[in-house]
Design a protein that fits this description.
28% of the residues lie in helices and 20% in strands. The chain is an alpha/beta fold. The chain has one domain: Alpha/Beta hydrolase fold, catalytic domain (Rossmann fold). InterPro entries: AB_hydrolase_fold (IPR029058), PET_hydrolase/cutinase-like (IPR041127). Keywords: Signal. This is PET hydrolase/cutinase-like domain-containing protein.
């Protein structure tokens, strides 16, 4: 299903006029050299296996709840779930709303995640993303909420696209965050403040957030386990509507780091990681010395 209509046009215009200029400015400042960080695996997963089908819908039917600050995407029957579900907080690109990324966020929810997407077109500071964690913490303790005792507040990831990708880096400094997936992140963030594993994604043909900017963040991540993945032939809006090549790797990453899904680990870790050998999907993959 595609949503490449008016929200996409607004996103395209905003990104081309705002983020691109900032990216050029940061790149002009020069690139640091390579890095060396550390990794901690999650506990054994109690979630159903998907047998490596990261790009297929997961085992959960999904629901959406639109709030004042955040939109929630989550397993529909969460109130009767026998387990707590990990959280992903999401930041939109410049001028965008969660609806633009609906298919990706529902995909994660179908795999058992509670996704809290900020209802703001200017997510860079990560304020709404943090408020989303606060709101879910309150819901987890509220007997009247469908999320009562169903939120795994011990396993929280942060992700976002463009300006929201920068927000994921900003929010990655929060002690409640366990991992980050910045997707084509804008330049207004400092990865030095992040102390959790990072999967930094670029698009080979992205002319708004250049791959070199994403590599800048990767090269600066010399204190955390960091992976750089450049999606072959992807431009800045490939993720919009149908998430295509972004769905599978992000799902695998979060299933490993937030659910402890051991089947997802070989996609990123070990001597023959899956994304390292998948040249059809990736034009460039780099792992620093702390990715073991």
């Amino acid at each position: 299903m595609s949503h490449r209509s008016r929200p996409v046009s607004r996103l395209r215009t905003a990104l081309r006029t705002g983020t691109a200029a900032l990216c050029v400015a940061v790149l002009a400042a020069g690139m640091p050299s390579t890095a060396t960080p550390a990794h901690a695996a999650a506990a054994a997963s109690t979630f159903p296996s998907v047998n490596g089908a990261w790009d297929a819908p997961g085992p959960y039917a999904t629901a959406v709840q639109v709030g004042a600050v955040n939109t929630l995407y989550y397993p529909r029957d969460i109130a009767s779930s026998p387990r707590r579900h990990p959280v992903i907080v999401w930041g939109n690109g410049t001028g965008a709303a969660p609806l633009v990324y609906r298919e990706l966020l529902l995909h994660w929810a179908s795999h058992g995640f509670i996704v809290s997407a900020a209802n703001t077109p200017t997510s860079n500071l990560g304020i709404s993303m943090r408020l989303g964690i606060d709101a879910l913490a309150q819901a987890d303790g509220n007997p009247a909420s469908i999320f009562y005792r169903r939120v795994d507040l011990g396993h929280i990831g942060a992700s976002g696209h463009s300006q929201g990708g920068a927000a994921a880096i900003v929010v990655g400094a929060d002690s409640r965050i366990d991992t980050i997936v910045p997707i084509q992140p804008g330049p207004l963030a400092d990865i030095d403040n992040v102390h959790v594993p990072a999967f930094l994604m670029a698009g080979q043909n992205d002319s708004i957030v250049l791959p070199a900017l994403v590599r800048y963040f990767y090269n600066d991540a010399d204190h955390i386990p960091a992976i750089y993945g450049e999606v072959r032939n992807a431009d800045h809006l490939t993720i919009v509507g149908d998430p295509g090549p972004f769905a599978a790797p992000t799902t695998a990453w979060f299933r490993f780091h937030l659910m402890g899904d051991a089947e997802a680990r070989p996609e990123f870790y070990g001597p023959a990681c899956g994304i390292c050998t998948d040249t059809r999907t990736w034009s460039d993959v780099r792992r620093n010395q702390l990715v073991a």
